[in-house]
Design brief:
Length: 270
């Protein structure tokens, strides 16, 4: 099989930018080749032009799902950027409880949930705060990768992965599965709804607005124009007073958003 040509790489780059908002620099050419090589071999394609034609002609979504699963990078871990979780626990949850005491309806969206560490952490914090208070504490977790969603739904992690979480959580919210693997308890998993979602969708359609949105370390793959469009759509589905959390390596232009800056990588809709 031939290496990917500059022209073929440009076709792949344009496709992923148009459909998923992800910008691939020239330095990603080798990565694209290495990640898609096995797909081409399995399908019997001689070059990336044949693969691209297969990708754009497929009507089943199977080729697209496989493509995005191969191309996207998913790296996360429990307690990542822990100051966000501290702020969520100490400021956001008490605010939601005070403001929506009559409704008792918590609405949190984890956009770009990867293999589930972030939504599971959020749900553990929520359980600690709202246990026994009669609230609807189900949260929404979405990702573009079905492969990651499958892992998140299973929520099985090895001992090294959970070593930094509080001992109380390890005892209460995890159970031994096999070997050195631990599974998140149904008490937590049962309160998370996982769904495939593309942030490039024209509209984000939810019945009601979100009190908090976590989209951390996802928009680093988008150019400024795409990032601003996504932020605008987030704003539209955030309840007044609601919060947006982004990654510490990300930023929002104050002139391009109506969110108010709260602290590094935390913004609020006023």
């Amino acid at each position: 099989m031939k290496d990917i040509s500059d022209k073929e790489f440009q076709l792949i780059r344009d496709y992923i930018k148009a459909h998923f908002g992800i910008s691939l620099g020239d330095e990603k050419k080798a990565l694209v080749f290495s990640r898609l090589r096995t797909v081409l071999l399995d399908k019997g394609f001689d070059n990336f032009t044949q693969y691209y034609e297969y990708l754009i002609r497929d009507k089943t979504d199977g080729a697209v799902i496989q493509f995005i699963d191969k191309i996207t990078t998913n790296h996360t871990f429990f307690m990542r950027e822990v100051d966000h979780f501290d702020f969520f626990k100490e400021t956001v949850l008490p605010y939601i409880e005070r403001t929506y005491e009559r409704e008792k309806d918590l609405r949190v969206w984890c956009a770009g949930c990867s293999s589930g560490e972030e939504p599971n952490t959020l749900q553990m914090l929520i359980q600690d705060h709202f246990a026994g208070k009669g609230w609807d504490t189900r949260i929404l977790a979405t990702d573009i990768s079905t492969q990651m969603l499958d892992k998140a739904i299973q929520s099985v992690y090895n001992g090294e992965s959970i070593k930094d979480i509080p001992e109380k959580w390890r005892k209460e919210y995890f159970q031994k599965k096999d070997g050195n693997n631990f599974e998140v308890s149904d008490k937590i998993k049962g309160q998370i709804t996982y769904r495939r979602h593309n942030l490039m969708d024209e509209r984000y359609q939810f019945k009601r607005g979100m009190h908090a949105i976590f989209c951390r370390n996802v928009m680093i793959y988008f150019d400024n124009r795409t990032r601003n469009q996504i932020i605008e759509k987030f704003y539209g589905v955030t309840e007044p007073g609601g919060y947006l959390f982004i990654g510490h390596s990300e930023s929002i232009s104050h002139t391009q958003t109506q969110y108010r800056y709260v602290m590094p990588s935390v913004y609020r809709k006023i």
